[in-house]
Amino acid sequence: MSDVETTFDRLLKLPGVMGAILVNGEGEAVRTSMDSTSSSIFAGKMRPMVKMARALVHEVEPTDELTYLRMRTLKSEILVAAENEHMIILVQDTNILDEARRNSSSSSKKSE
Amino acid sequence: MSDVETTFDRLLKLPGVMGAILVNGEGEAVRTSMDSTSSSIFAGKMRPMVKMARALVHEVEPTDELTYLRMRTLKSEILVAAENEHMIILVQDTNILDEARRNSSSSSKKSE
C-alpha cells in the first residue's frame, strides 16, 4: 500500500468523518467512502480550485506554497490536501469536529 | 461606521495578522492594511475562488452554504469570509497563529 493510501485510511478514523476521497492526477476518484455522485463532483471540481489557490499564493509571495485548503460550511468542513500528484478530500461534520478540537487541545495541555 | 468595517477593525487586532483587506461587491479593495500590489491580487483573484467554492458546496448539498474559506501555506493562513456583498480577507502568520490557538484553547478550558 502506498504512503498516500496509508494516509487515506488514517484520515477515515478522524472524528466526525462524513467521507473521504482520494483523487489521482487525472482527476478520478481512485478510492472513496462517499456515494458516486458526491465523489465525482468533489473529484472534478476541487482540482481547478486548488490550482487557483496555488497560483494566488505564488503570485503574492513566490517563495510560499499552498499546503491545504479548507472550506467551512454550515454543516461540514471540507479539507483538501495535495500530496504529489494525488489529492485527498476529507469531509467532516462541523459539530463533532469542533468538539473533538476542544477536547484535543485541553488534553495536550494537560500532558505538558 | 458599518458593521463590516467594525468587523474589519476587530480582525486587525487578532494574533499574527500580516494584513487584512475589505473588498466590495465590485472586487475593489475599499480598505486594506497591505501594500497595493498584494491587495489588488487578493481582491481580484479571491472572488472567483469563493464563487467556485460556493457552487461546489451547493452542488453537493443544496441546503448547505459556504461560511468561509481558509488557505494554509508554509508561511501564512489566509481566511476569506463573505458578508453580504463584501468580502474580508485576512492573512495571518502561521507560527504566531498556531501558538495563539494553543493558548486560547487551554485558557478557555481552565475557565470551565
From TrEMBL, chains A, B:
The Roadblock/LAMTOR2 domain is annotated at 4-92
Checking Pfam families in the record gives: Robl_LC7
> Which SUPFAM superfamilies does the annotation name?
Roadblock/LC7 domain
Superkingdom field: Eukaryota
Q: Which InterPro entries match?
A: Roadblock/LAMTOR2_dom
Q: Show the coiled coil region(s).
A: none
Family per similarity comment: Belongs to the GAMAD family.
Q: What is this protein called?
A: GL27334
Classification lineage: Eukaryota, Metazoa, Ecdysozoa, Arthropoda, Hexapoda
